[in-house]
Design goal:
Strand 7, helix 7 and strand 8 form a beta-alpha-beta unit. It contains twelve helices and eleven strands. The structure holds 6-O-phosphono-beta-D-fructofuranose (F6P).
Length: 361
């Protein structure tokens, strides 16, 4: 296909960093196909996130590399949690190496696909004079500046399916089932999946819970003849008591419980509070695996192709975001160093309450 217009970007590098998620390959395909077919750009794939750019692990990508990957989980480029700016002296060496490799490969821009950390690093590299474009991915949906990140919708579907399955076990055994989703700092995934799965209690990091309130809710359900309950909890949820503790005291307290995660602590607290038989399930990495949902494929493709248009126009220093029903660039300073949490006045919290869900308070 002929190029639409002469492209300002001739050569760009692309990497995926941070935790993987469904939709990364769809986004890689979106960027690369549009950049190659419409604008004839040269594309260099960087292995394992920023680590690959530090080590110079870079290879040209040809159309066959980004063909047939739309539906594949994971990332064909590999990923790592390398944060080059993290520690001072070694950090300086790493940033120097990144700049050297960027110049050595004559990149006009580096496209980074990732979450808060990845886009923050992108912003810092832009401050160092590199041309950067970011794309938002994470199952946590906690990137400031975009309404959605790809990966989120797929993870909601996985979590909802798991909750549905655990629902029937809860009902058969007259138990309380506590289901832990990912989400350290933000409770979007637990909230969405909790509502989709009909959670009777949803606990998120933004609302420290009171076990007494949970106990009252479960007892009142039992009083209505409901012999089981579903509790959805984000991995970063915490009790009101824990919220008051210093970080190190909280860590010590959790170690002393001898329990591996919040789902187990909440399950034990529920048993102590209500006497109800309670089980914990941690969904773990299953939430980040496998094929992307149709919605994530579309979002990743829209974000990817929009990134190619920005590359062609030479509009750098941006993260491509979903704003309302459209796709638009926001300055990389918007997501940098931030976490998009569930605001206390988010309408979805009221939606949950309106259908009788207890939010732990
Ligand atoms: O990508 C974000 C996330 O899904 C968090 O919710 C979770 O805490 C984290 O990844 C765990 O990832 P890893 O163990 O791969 O670093």
């Amino acid at each position: 296909m002929e190029a639409r217009e002469p492209s300002i970007t001739k050569t760009f590098g692309i990497l995926t960093a941070g935790g993987d998620c469904p939709g990364l390959n769809a986004a890689i395909r979106g960027v690369c196909r549009a950049a190659y077919d419409r604008y004839h750009m040269n594309i260099l794939g960087i292995t394992n996130g920023y680590r690959g750019l530090i080590d110079g692990d870079v290879r040209p990508l040809a159309p066959e590399d980004f063909s047939g990957i739309l539906t594949r989980g994971g990332t064909i480029l590999g990923t790592s949690r390398e944060k080059p700016f993290k520690s001072s002296e070694i950090g300086e060496d790493k940033v120097r190496a990144i700049k050297e490799n960027y110049n050595k490969h004559k990149l006009d821009c580096l496209v980074v696909l990732g979450g808060n950390g990845t886009n923050t690093t992108g912003y810092l590299l832009a401050q160092e004079g590199l041309n950067i474009l970011g794309l938002p991915k994470t199952i946590d949906n906690d990137i400031e500046g975009t309404e959605r990140s790809f990966g989120f919708h797929s993870a909601i579907a996985i979590c909802t399916d798991a909750i549905d399955r655990l629902h029937s076990i809860a009902a058969s055994h007259n138990r309380v089932m506590v289901i832990e989703t990912m989400g350290h700092k933000a409770g979007w995934l637990a909230l969405y999946a909790g509502i989709a799965g009909g959670g009777d209690v949803i606990l998120i990091p933004e609302i420290p819970y009171d076990i007494k309130a949970i106990g009252r809710h479960l007892n009142s359900r039992a009083g209505e003849g409901k012999s089981f309950s579903i509790v959805v909890v984000a991995e970063g949820a915490l009790s009101a008591e824990e919220a008051k503790m210093e970080k190190k005291d909280r860590k010590k307290y959790r170690m002393e419980t001898g329990l591996p995660s919040i789902a187990y602590r909440v399950a034990r607290e529920i048993e102590e509070e209500t006497g109800m038989e309670t089980r914990a399930t941690v969904l773990g990495y299953v939430q980040r695996g496998g094929i992307p949902s149709a919605s994530d494929r579309v979002l990743a493709t829209r974000l990817g192709t929009a990134a190619a248009d920005l590359l062609a126009r030479g509009e750098y220093g941006k993260m491509v975001a979903q704003l309302g029903s459209g796709i638009a660039p926001v300055d990389l300073s918007v997501p940098a160093g931030k976490i998009k949490k569930v605001p206390r006045d988010d309408p979805l919290l009221d939606t949950a309450i309106a259908v009788g869900t207890c939010l732990g308070v």
